[in-house]
Amino acid sequence: MNHRQSTWMLLAGCLALLGLSIACSVNPVTGKRELMLISTEQEVSMGLQAGPQFEAQFDGPVPDEGLQRYVSEIGMKLVANCDRKDLPYEFKCVRSAIPNAFALPGGKVFVTAGLIACMSNERQLAAVLGHEIGHVNARHNVKGMQRQMGSELFGKMVAQMASGQEADKAEKAKGAAQFVAGMVTMKYGRDDEYQADSLGIKYMARSGWNPQGMVELLEVLLAMHDKEPSSLEEMFQTHPLTSKRVAEAKETVAKDFPQAKAGEADPNVKTFDQMKAKAIQHATKL
Ligand SMILES: [Zn+2]
């Protein structure tokens, strides 16, 4: 065994102690092989365990079945056209009035009532959900958490959350709490944002929405932020948005979907407006 091999063995041994599986897997988006510290199964289990706490952090789901069904149907249509279909996706609108959207590892996606309130048509909602599915598909959220927490702390947290014993309930809850806190303050890198936009654009177009919705939404949010930076501080913290990001999205649409017209009328705008009114009605006060 040479030095390099023994280093690898040592690393694998340490990770095994932490309850992590080391695997070289193919990134479903890029097709490149990469080192994944957690398995898809662990990823799903993290999302499932953290889901309820995460939901509560954003004031719980909007109590309106019609709105939840609407958001879920748009999300699942996009999923049918994404690169990683084997996850238990779930889409929910939460009551927080602060504009934001999140994707937990494993496919739980949340959009706040406050973000829906900023939109003017259905394709903009499809753009947000498509962008979040993009983060899940390229595993940005798992990698981002690992980067933010450091491999050691991340490893401990995954081990806590994945422990199978009933007696480990307190440890599991501790892991989930750490995870939620980390997720809320996690910042995606700019390259992750460009890639999530570009994936969202692709999934939108494949599902029948005009991908110009992505450009429209980014322009609206950037203009809002220029006018009143504090209103979008949290969203910009997680998903950095610059004029370069808007320009990149514009270029992707123009290059890949030249037939997509800007400013096209939304055939479902009536339904969208009804759903938006429900989101605003149930949003918690700022
Ligand atoms: Zn993002």
Structural class per helix/strand content?
A: mainly alpha
Distance between the termini: 61 Å
The major beta sheet can be summarized as: 3 strands, mixed
Number of helices: 13
Query: What are the secondary-structure elements, in order, as H or E?
Result: HEEHHEEEHHHHHHHHHH
Please tell me what the overall shape is.
globular
Our count of domains comes out at 1
Rg over C-alpha atoms, rounded to the nearest angstrom? 19 Å
Tell how many strands the DSSP assignment holds. 5
Mean residue pLDDT: 88
Strand content: 5-15%
Bound molecules: zinc ion
Into which percent range does the helicity of residues fall? 55-70%
Low-confidence segments: 17-21
Strand order of the largest sheet: 3-5-4
Topology:
Elements: H1 3-17, E1 23-26, E2 33-36, H2 40-57, H3 65-79, E3 90-94, E4 101-103, E5 108-112, H4 113-116, H5 122-137, H6 140-149, H7 151-162, H8 169-185, H9 190-206, H10 212-227, H11 233-238, H12 243-256, H13 269-282
Parallel strand pairs: 3-5
Antiparallel strand pairs: 1-2, 4-5
The protein binds zinc ion.
Question: How would you portray this structure in words?
Answer:
With 286 residues, this protein is mainly alpha-helical. It has one domain (40-282). Helix content is 61%, strand content 7%. It has 13 helices and five strands. It has helices spanning 3-17, 40-57, 65-79, 113-116, 122-137, 140-149, 151-162, 169-185, 190-206, 212-227, 233-238, 243-256, 269-282; strands at 23-26, 33-36, 90-94, 101-103, 108-112. The strands form two sheets. Strands 3-5-4 form a three-stranded mixed sheet, with helices on both faces. A two-stranded antiparallel sheet has the order 1-2. A hairpin with a 6-residue loop joins strand 1 and strand 2 (33-36). Helix 5 (122-137) packs across helix 10. The chain is globular. The site of zinc ion has 6 residues, from helix 5 and helix 9.
